Amino acid sequence: MLMIKSKIALKSAVTLAITGLAFNASANLMISEVLYDAPNNDSLEEFVELYNASCSSIDLSQYNISDNGASLALSGTLASGQYFTIAKDAAGFNSLFSRQADLAPMPLSLGNSGDYVKLLKGTQEIDVVAWEGGLSGWTLNATNVSLVRSTNTQSQADWDVGSNAGHPGDGSLTTSCGTPPTENLLENGQVKTSLNASTGQTLKFVADIPAGATGLSFKMNGGSGDADLYVRQGSEPTANVFDCRPYLTGNNEECPIATAVAGRYFVNITAYQGFSAANLVANYTPATTGGGEGNPGDYAFDTYYANANGKTGSALKASLNLIIRDHTRFTYDQVWDGLNYADEDPSNTNNVILLYTNRSEPKTNRAGMSNSLDAWNREHVWAKSHGFPSSGQHAYTDLHHLRPADVTVNSSRGNKDFALGGAPLTEAPDNKTDADSFEPANMVKGDVARMVFYMDVRYEGGDSSGTPNLTVAKGVTGTGEALLGDLCTLLNWHIQDPVSDWERRRNNRVYEWQLNRNPFIDNPMWAEDLYSSSCN
């Protein structure tokens, strides 16, 4: 028989099903910058910027902003640690800041003689900023410059008058999420064993859940003593604030999640009495499409690429960019699970296939979990030092160019350009390298080329990804530049090593997670259309 700890706890013993939003979302979506008196034209250049300070993506469709004359319903999804810009006029905003707004037009007047912006979730006020007496006690006054937030006390003290018209899409605000130690990261189906704590102590874990996951549950069992399981999506649970707390006697407790939300779940185990030898596991089923071998059910080439079909040259590139941009973004920790799924060995679901070596390696034999020289890590095919050194930039975690790779082979590749020549690697002699370039094995040369071409088209700069315009270039490029070479070598590899069934399978699986595709796998001819004129 399951025993409830006390009559008072009886009501708390019922598991609370999560229905779509983190409890802390309202406290962590905030107004971060406002330009209400623009340098040239208020009706064209004004903007409001929001920031997601939580540890999970936020569904903006449940929010709206308003001033004393109008309101605007928001849309889209905002990733943790990212900014969202709302412009009075899209063209005017782009002209002043050389970037595209995330949402436009905005009907708010943002009056110069006293006004405010309120952020609401439904009818509940979440945040507010006011100026020039727009609300009692607010005396901020800015002329031709923006109001910029630096802290979060939800008062006028959070705000400063900027020195220019603003930096929409960028700023100094940060999340408190951090990167958890590997031993504290719960991964799908991987049991944490031999957990021990003294009375009153708390063990803390996190789990990063991908979009579309179903059947999510957190289960604790085994050992002796009395431990309590607490689960909360988006931020750490407390004794009084949680999504699930079974609160039973002993160590056998489970939190099933009715509707999983993409993002981070925080899981605490608190010792009601000292316990030992307990186990903890997170289980879920990733979004699938019947094994990922065929086309996902919601993908059809003619529909997905409707706005690109029939176009050539710069018009084709612009259309493809619009189709594949704004993908679902994951944290760098979530990338481990993404690669476990996208690169899963079809013959052994406990393994992944490594880039460059084509070796099947256990999912658990990875950097941070193993000291083996055969361990694998996350290879950025477009080297991150070539344009996006920060994990907050979307290209840093884009699964379309992240691949499992042997740690020593990955180290040999480093951040070098791709080109012909060099000495064979001792561990993987089908791959060669010299001082400034890396030549992958013939069997993956086309794969590499198509991943690089994807990056060149996906990241054109001026969007909310925080990534500059990435350009595949001719010749050798330098570290720190948003360039990667060699264009003509890569185009030859693309032609010589055609798209394989493995690539198609992987493209489908990444699409399930990110909701965007690599167009050069779906239509290889587009690469020749875009790049052949540069290579004679």
UniProtKB/TrEMBL annotation:
UniProt keyword terms in alphabetical order: Endonuclease, Hydrolase, Nuclease, Signal
**SUPFAM superfamilies, per the entry:** His-Me finger endonucleases, Lamin A/C globular tail domain
State the signal peptide span: 1-27
Taking every annotated instance into account, which residue ranges of this chain make up the domain LTD? 19-133
- Please report a single Pfam family linked to this protein: Endonuclease_1
Presence of keyword Translocase: no
Q: Name one GO molecular function term.
A: endonuclease activity
Membrane-spanning ranges? none
For this chain, the family text in UniProt reads: Belongs to the EndA/NucM nuclease family.
Q: What is this protein called?
A: Endonuclease
Which organism is this entry from?
Shewanella aestuarii
